[in-house]
Amino acid sequence: MKHMNSEVKEERTSNKKRIDLFLVPIVLIAAFLNLFKIWTDEYANAYYTAAVKSMLQSFHNFFYASFDPGGYVTIDKPPVVFWIQTISAKIFGFHGWSVILPQALAGLGSVLLLYVLVKRTFGVWAGRFAALAMALTPIVPAVSRTNNIDSMLVFTLLVATWMLFRAVRTAKFGWVLAAFAMIGVAFNMKMLQAYMVLPAFYVFYVVATKITWKKKIAFLTTATALMLAVSVSWAVVVDSTSADKRPYMGSSQTNSVLELAFGYNGINRLTGNTSVTGSSHKQPAQAQQQTASSETKQTSNSNAESSQSSNQSKSSSSKKMQAPGGGNQNGMFNTGNPGPFRLFQKGLSDQISWLLPFVIFSIVGLFAGVKFKGPYTTKQKESLFWLAWLLPVAVFFSIAGFFHQYYLIMLAPPIAAFAGAGAVALWSMYKQRNGWKSWLLPGGILTTAALQVYIMSPYVSSIGVAPIAGVGALGVILALVLAVRKERKNSVTNYLGVAAMVVLLAMPAYWAMTPIIYGGNSMLPAAGPDSSSGMGGPPSTATNSKQSGFNGMQPPGSSNGNSSSNNQMQPPSGSSNGGQMQMPGGSSNNGQMQPPSGSSNSGQMQMPGGSSNNSQMPNSSSSKSSSSKRKSGGMNAEVNKKLLNYLTKNNTGEKYLFATTDSTSAAPYIIKTGKPVMAMGGFSGSDPILTVSKLKAMIKKGEVKYFYLSGMGKGGQSDVITWIKENSKEIPSSKWQSTSSSSQQGPSGNGTLYEITLK
Q1: CA–CA separation, 733 vs 424, rounded Å?
Q2: What is the pLDDT of residues 619-671, one digit of tens each?
Q3: What is the layout of strands, in order, in the sheet containing 752-755?
Q4: What does the alpha-carbon distance between residue 130 and residue 158 come to, in Å, rounded to a whole number?
Q5: Which helix (DSSP H) or strand (DSSP E) does residue 267 occupy?
Q6: How far apart are CA 55 and CA 65, in angstroms?
Q7: pLDDT per residue over 384-398, tens digit each?
Q8: SS3 424
Q9: What share of the chain is helix, strand, coil (3-state, %, to 5)?
Q10: Which residue has the higher pLDDT, 567 or 754?
Q11: On the CB side of 97, how many CA atoms lie within 13 Å of its CA?
């Protein structure tokens, strides 16, 4: 107790200085990485941006996080982050940057919070280095520069951590309740992902508090009950509301928030069973799906449609998409193959793992000599907290069936904390020549430099040999010199230690800047020289540099003068959900997708959920439209003006401007016009929302009469779509299709517009 009191006094003394001048440049670096040029991202992730546009229009839409202004279906996540984004848009106006701003500030706030958390116990230099490591972890700014949820989620969990640490220091139960309640708030941001930190909270509170076991159990039980109550509060309200009084819960199969939380956005992430099968709920998620051959190339052949059919037939027998993590070495969406070394594989290592070897050496040093029964110092207790955060999350990402690269931001706080605390601890052991522990510093530097060379090696064509050779050579030299000079104490040795830290952070710093240098992707954010592709992995080895998107497939709603079906992604035959590729908002295609071939700006790939890589389709006249404003949402909120004029002119009071299969075609029109557009099957087109009888009733009421149907998003809607085609009048494309549709998004060149009127 005397030791603890002396530490508290020392902390208070060190905190008297209000401004840490060394922290200022770190904050400026973080602000630059998170905020610079976010104003060029005009519409961000259009799936979520469309929801903000809708939420601005009524409290009903705001509360339920409705995707469309008509309140037909919600987005696939809880509403808290989108409430914040909507408030930001209300204050600053509806812009891409105004919906991104809360996440960018959250990324900056996480850097500051980590500084406060680490500094108090491990010292000011540990806090500074931890904050810098957090700021320069590539995936942190990559995510924070978008309107995806994860940056805000991490910030909220760090706030909960601050509350928990304060609860232990002050021995006040109120702070324990506040900490667990904050996790409940985080649950309403991204559901079960918020619970990944619970092992750390439980372990730390049990070890760090000096109260009886009876009180520990009682306090934790009460706090957990409060957390669960806060977690399900919104879900209970929504699920208890009559279905006809609220939007359908997007991406659920039973119109239930709880099912969405614990199924699609929960356990299914671990198992990989994230397919939504529409009317067939028994389809296994691991079912293999078919896709066009990766060698498919764009062509202007007038017989493209028949050629495509032939290619698909060949593909269905020879090219099948593997289950998540299977197949090629990069796994689905570049998340590698499940296994103990997954975080060191391509596609993941360059997002988060740059300092992992140094962290491992730091953990060894920080826990050296610790006895299982204690007593534990404050440093050891908090080290245990960060370890209990790091290990379960790392294990999850090592074995999970489906996730996206940007989820790895969950690992950033413990890695940065150990990097900061470990740097000071290992340096102290080195300077004190503390036996075998004194070798941990040069060993950590050497192995970390070696890993960074490995991480960069696939990018030789993008970044050149010099940075790779430089990091490797300097890392080896500095580690060896430190080992040789271990017995000496002078200023030269101090400079060598600082130089080593600079070398280890140099390439993460460059990687963290790549979304600014090369452009980012608001749907699938990832750092790296190909950051704008949204696949965050090594460049493709495909030889055709003119392939667009993934494997040369053309997005729905785009045309470059070829047959409208030439490069259109088709659902595999026999798939109950249309075989559709689901993207974030957070879903999967249960198969592997290859990273974009050729250069990172070779083409634009539009996907369900509203995003794509940042470039336009080849042979389009898009260079003009992308010169000043980066529209990395993929749907680009570029609408077919001729179609819009036709629909507006012929609207006779219908509630919906038109209906379409999924959010891909709907979002640009919602963003641009603020008018209701019905995504009949929700986010990916596979939600079992509509029935034929329900649609008939809507048409008779005069709620909708125009339908745009493409080759995407048919899962769970086959009966509805068949009925639409059989009972509608096809509108000639000359009336609504723009001749310049090659540079536009949404319904334009590869679908059909229908009209239905019933008496």
Answers
A1: 68
A2: 333 333 333 455 444 444 578 899 999 999 999 999 999 999 999 889 999 99
A3: 678-679, 659-660, 706-709, 752-755, 729-730
A4: 13
A5: none
A6: 6
A7: 999 999 999 999 999
A8: helix
A9: 55, 5, 40
A10: 754
A11: 10
